[in-house]
Amino acid sequence: MKRESRQKVQEILVSWPSLFWLCLFFIIPTLFVFAIALKPANPYGGIGPGWTLDNLRALANSNYLTVAWRTVWISVFSAAICLVLSTPIGYYLARVSARWKGFFLMLIIVPFWTNFLVRIFAWKVLLHPEGAIKKALALVGLIGPQTSLLYNSGAVVLVTVYAFLPFTILPIYAAAEKFDFQLLEAARDLGAKPFQAFSRVFLPGIRRGLLTALLFVFIPALGSYVIPDIVGGPGGEMIGNKIAQRVFVDRNLPLASALSVVLILSVLAPLLAVLVLQRKREKPESLI
Amino acid sequence: MSEFLEFREVAKRFGTIQAVGGVSLSIKKGEFYSLLGPSGCGKTTMLRLAAGFEYPDTGRIILDGQDITDLPPDKRKVNTIFQSYALFPHLTVWENIAFGLRVAKKPKEEIASEVEAMLRLIRMGGEAGKKPDQLSGGQKQRVAIARALINKPQVLLLDEPLAALDLKLRQRMLIELDMIHDQVGITFLYVTHDQGEAMSLSDRIAVMDSGRIEQVGSPAEIYEAPRTSFVAAFIGDTNFLEGEVTGLLDKEYCQVRIADIPGVICFNDKSMKPGSPVYLSIRPEKIHISRDRPEESRQVNILPAVVEDMIYLGSTTKYWVKTHGLRIQVLRQHFRFFLDEKPIRWNDDVWIWWHGDDGFMLDRYRAIDENLVALPPQKVGEPEAGGEKR
Q1: pTM higher than 0.90, yes or no?
Q2: Final residue in a domain of this structure, among B226, B250, B270
């Protein structure tokens, strides 16, 4: 009993610095955001006295609802495409010989050496009406000469998938690496067709990796700001852009905070749902 | 009965390694057939070829008159029991057993009744809702058997199914496997490196080495009449004595010179000519040992020897004796224990003798056999450290 309690104390001591860090720079500021959302704005870009629910009421504006809906579907779409693309890649990486594995993993990580903004901006060049992709597709006749590849929701999805693909490949690969591939043979042996073996045995086998990958795209995508700002245009705006506009253009911090609160809650909700679901199904395990 | 599962000149190469080199085998319907051999001999590859996980470089595989060489694993009416069991960890015992019927899209009621019947067969009705990681080794084994049998395969392939179990459990599962084989009456192809398992279960055994079949026969044939020195050394213990045929006594017996022993009498079943080099193999339990000189007889070889080592094994004692510079193993069964008997001890002078019929002459002796013979043979059958998995 003594030993156990001492271990507990040690655990708390070890985690104390990070807990302190999280409290000071994450939890307390988040609470500030929640508080500011309930304050009125003053005309000088500051925060007025008293409390009000006006900011939250302002969110019912149909303009915000449109943007919120778009934010959700862009995130869902991007996450789904990322998972669909990453699963075969993760499968392949886990099966390929060690030499090639190192090479491919490097290829996945190399893009990170270039600044995120630069990479996003490169897409603007690529998708530009005078850009190479647009011209090539128009030449082949797949799109009309007037079709715009840039400044729409499709461009946002495309670039989001591009930006987050490595973050979904890695957890799926990590899960596939631990998967016992003899189980696929067993499934085939028992009469499963290749696709049945894949969907009934491989996918459940790496479900933890899939879940992690899903959260890795979905949550950042919900709050993304840079990507829709650069390639989205007015038709590809997301909540992140709205928040930025309230802060930088309108200088209305309380309304920006109210928007942020909605965003935070909508990110927390799926996360909590996943955690509760896991707790219910089996002994708690880490997400990664 | 005629051939049921047939390998015709099947060969398979992995890179530079010839895993299986032109093997032909035919297995009868309902037979319990074992592939026995050391690790890396190609027996697991044979099983994987039959299951459809590997495609042969040359040769065909025939099941019940149908060429199945080109069929994928899910189209073959064979099922495998993997060494690691390969139970699906995300499914319960019930769902694991039901897997084959579910992918075949059988009606729900049929699946339920079949699975219940299987659970009864393996006596695990109480564990139906457990996940594989909550089961013991023997239980996992039984689930693996049920999961394979529910598909009603024509042949059940077993890849060292008992290797991961401890000794007592292995003995119990051996009996259980035998019972299941009798109950379901399907053909079993059993791969093992354990001669004890192969001996006790099989109707016939094929001894494999380096991708080739050394000998096919019933357990007794394999043990009592090994055709090659590899088989003699791999199955059970034996003494190998190098010598040369010096003369023929009559139609049946000949004389062999071994080291400086001039006239060892041996049954000449291979009709060896005088002058041909031979390897005489004599099983340790066929050699008698005693302090007193036995009575002379025409076909009995009697040699004086000195005891160098001995191990008491309970029901038997194993002696290593030296005679004419040769080290010979002798196994003595204890029949009756006399307290006043003066037991044979180290450095005692003893007599050893064996009947000419109990030695057999072998003419092949390859480099690989030498390793086997040089090893204490009881090590050969032990679980190996890696190298087998492909």
Answers
A1: no
A2: B226
